[in-house]
Structures are given as C-alpha cells and as structure tokens.
Specification:
about 0% strand
Length: about 450
C-alpha cells in the first residue's frame, strides 16, 4: 500500500516536471514566433500601434488630468463634506454633493489654466509678429548693403555671384511652374487636414474632460477592483510586492510632477517680474515658455531660453543679452534653492542619473519622455535599491551605501565627514560576511 502511494507520488512529480518543461518550451517557441513576426511586419505593427494610440489619446489625456487634479479634488471634497455633513439628512447625500463640488472646482481649474495660457500667448504672439514684420525689410536692406560692401571689395566673389544669379532665377521660375503650382492641391489638402486635426483635437479634449470626471469620482472603486484582482491572481507575498511598487510609484510621480509644476509656476512668475523690471519685450509670452519648459529637469530652462533669446535678438540685441543673463541667474536660483526646497527628495536620484533618464527618455519617447523619464527611472531605481538592501539584510551584510565608499585614498576619515552614527571607516569586506549562514 505504501509502495503504491510512493509510486503515485513519484509519477505525479514526474508528470509535473514534464508539464513544466513542456510549458517552458511552448512559451519559448511562442516568443520566438512572435519575435520573427514582429521583425518581418514591423511597419504594419507600428502603423497599428500609432492608430491605437490615436484612439486612446482621450483616455491618456483624461488620466493625466485626473492625476494632476486629484489633490485639488480630494481637498475640496474633504473641506466641503465637513461644511455640509450636519446640514443634510444623510452622510451619503453630503458625500455626493461634495463630489459634485470637487468635480466642478477641478474642471474650472483645468479650463482656467488652458484659457489663461491661450490668452497670455496669442496676444503676445500677434504683437511679436506685427513688430517683426515691419522690421524685416530693414534687416534685409542692411544685409544687402553689407553684402554689397564686401562685393565691391572682392571682384572674384562679385563675378561668381553675378554668374549664378541668372541660374538661380531660372531655377526659381522652373520650380514655381513645375513644382509649386502642381502641388497646390496637396497644400490645400494639408490645410484642410490641419483644420480637421484641430477639430479632432478639440473633440478629444472634451472627451478627455468627461473621462477625467469619471476617474476622479470612481478612483476608489477602480483601486478596490485592482486590489481584488491582484489578490486573487497572485500569492500574498507577490501581491504585497505589487502594492509596494504602486505606493512607491504614486509617491514618486506625485511628489515629482506636482512639485515640478509648482516650481515651474514660480520660475515663470519670477521671469515675468524680472523681464518687466528690465523692460524686455514680450515678457508675458517668453515667461510662459520658460515656465512650461522648466517642467523638464536640467535642460528645461535652456530649451525655452534658446528660441526666446533668438527672437529677442531680432527685435533688440541688447535685450537678448540681458535675457540670457537673467536665465542663467534663474537657473542657478532654481537648481540650488527653489527646486530642492519644493521637490525635496522626491526622486532621490543623483544629477548623473537625472541626466541619464532625461537623455534616454527623450531619445525613446520625445518631449513626454523627457518629462516622465526622471520619475519612471526613480521608481525603478528605488525598487531595485529596496530589493538589493533586502537581500543584503538577509545575508547580514551592511546595506548602507556609505559603508562601501572608500575615502582612504584622500587621507580622510569617514567619521570626519559623516559622523560616528553613519560612518564605518574602510570598505565592507564581503568575503568576511559571505561565510555567514543565510536565513531561509
């Protein structure tokens, strides 16, 4: 009887081993087939991927707006509920009304921000265009006079240009007749497609607002459903690890994005005040550009400053120089004082890893990757660091990074730099601790 049980158990183990082996072979084979298919049909898959992203664009916008408005929505609901909970018959009605007020406040802020940006940018853009256009003939005439002055002094260059002017004129006429006129239909179609894209963009924004409302009022339900699904599918330890990843991601993204928005608003206001004091042209529009691009860490101020400085150079060269000096001062003020005070240690990344995340994120995903590259990398970095520290603690090995740093080459003691509480002079010797038994 016992031998039969042992035989059945052995047979069951063999079956499980073969099943796992077969499942692994199947997964590897399926992965290879999918890889070959993706490589051979990459253009088709990319086109379908872009089509799917364009369809899901309102959902992306709605999720982003809901995430940004979540602190405002929560604070409004909390405050309004305290005010009216004793004035209505049931707490449920008070909560419903509080949610309505929180939704209206959030939507109002979104609309005011967008309308405010448009009202600040469009008039200044119109003013800059109307200022530049009358001055263009003067720039052209001065350039022509400069060229003529050099041509009179150099007969070789003058002869070369005069010989090629006729060729340029003939080529220009041929291009107008054979290229531009036949392409007029294409130009008209592109203009019409641009108008259609604008209409689609407005429609996507309205749909995104509706999605934002749904997410703000249903986020607790969505979170609860996600927790139920994760607890049902994964083991308790794996589910807790997923929840921990969610908490780290939320804290990192929330702290970074909200802090960076506040930081950028402050920089934009300071830029506007300084440009107004210095009497620089287009102060409002340039300050908005500087504030918006400042959301990108490290490179943001320069991305907004370069085109603004070139624009000021055409209008008033001295103003461009003053603006460049102003941006350098603002960047130092933001990097050393304002940014650290607001952001604190939201990402806990060194400057090197911040630059790495921006370059890689921007290279892979463009402008959005430059903004989100830092918090995404910070989440991965934090999660990896927690895993490494957990494994080191299980092995009874020091997990503080400072313990592995060695300053002996400088003749400096760690105690002098970091104090007795943290410092451990000399690097940790892994071979001394590797022989210790692991906790199973």
């Amino acid at each position: 009887m016992n031998e039969d049980k042992k035989g059945n158990r052995l047979h069951s183990l063999v079956d499980k081993a073969y099943f796992k082996m077969g499942l692994a072979v199947f997964i590897v084979g399926l992965a290879l087939i999918l890889s070959v298919y993706i490589i051979n049909n990459f253009s088709v898959i990319s086109a379908q991927w872009r089509r799917i992203n364009s369809i899901l664009l309102p959902f992306y916008l709605g999720i982003v707006m809901a995430y940004l408005m979540c602190p405002t929505y929560n604070a409004t609901v909390k405050w309004f509920y305290k005010v009216i909970k004793d004035r209505l018959k049931t707490p449920k009605k008070a909560m419903k009304l509080s949610r309505v007020v929180g939704t209206l406040v959030s939507l109002l802020i979104i609309i005011l921000v967008i309308v405010g940006l448009i009202m600040m940018i469009i008039p200044n853009l119109y003013e800059s265009i109307t200022t530049l256009v009358p001055r263009l003939p003067g720039y052209v005439n001065s350039t022509i006079k400069l060229i003529e002055a050099h041509l009179n002094d150099d007969n070789v260059v003058s002869k070369y240009i005069s010989e090629n002017l006729e060729k340029v004129s003939d080529n220009l006429g041929e291009w107008l007749q054979n290229k531009l006129l036949p392409a007029s239909e294409v130009i008209i179609s592109r203009v019409s497609s641009g108008v259609a894209a604008t209409i689609d963009g407005i429609f996507d924004f309205l749909v995104a607002l509706i999605i934002c409302v749904y997410i703000l009022n249903s986020k607790e339900l969505f979170i609860a459903q996600s927790k139920k699904f994760i607890n049902a599918v994964f083991s308790k330890s794996h589910a807790e690890a997923i929840f921990e990843l969610g908490r780290i991601s939320n804290n990192t993204f929330g702290g970074f994005i909200n802090g960076k928005i506040v930081d950028s608003i402050i920089i934009g206001i300071l830029c506007f005040i300084a440009m107004t004091i210095l009497n620089l042209p287009m102060a409002m529009m340039i300050s908005v550009v500087v504030g918006v691009t400042n959301i990108i860490p490290f490179f943001g101020p320069f991305i907004g400053a370069i085109p603004s400085a070139l624009l000021l150079l055409l209008i008033k060269p001295v103003a461009a120089l003053e603006f460049v000096i102003l941006i350098v001062v603002l960047q130092q003020l933001d990097g050393n004082i304002i940014g650290p005070k607001i952001l604190g240690k939201a990402t806990k990344l060194s400057s090197f890893w911040v630059m790495f995340a921006i370059i890689v994120g921007g290279g892979l995903f463009g402008f959005l990757g430059m903004i989100l590259g830092v918090p995404v990398f910070a989440v991965l970095y934090s999660y990896l660091a927690k895993g490494i520290n957990r494994r080191l603690n299980k092995k009874n090995i020091e997990s503080d990074t400072l313990a592995y740093e060695d300053f002996s080459k400088y003749g400096v003691s760690k105690t002098e730099l970091f104090g007795k509480e943290r410092a451990t002079d000399g690097p940790v010797k892994i071979e001394d601790t590797a022989s210790q038994p692991e906790d199973n």
